[in-house]
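## retry 2 of 3
previous attempt timed out at serialization; input unchanged, resubmitting
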Amino acid sequence: MNGGTTIIDAALRFARTNPQLVECAREGALESGRSIDDLLLEAIARMRAAIEERELMALGLGDQPRLKRRRSVSPSRRTESSAYS
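## retry succeeded, writing output
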């Protein structure tokens, strides 16, 4: 299990501790045919996006194009050009 999966699993476990949120997801699952976990994960993703947006606004970057995080290139895939970018 990689680190990203662990974070998502922890967030999902935390979301499942809120009975009101679980009930809302249960109702949504019945109406949409999606799983409760899918709906909770979607809610988590929306919350993270809202938090990132608020952080950008606090930095005065809210009206600028959305910043993207760059992942570093693994040493095995590093090329001459990627080493300096």
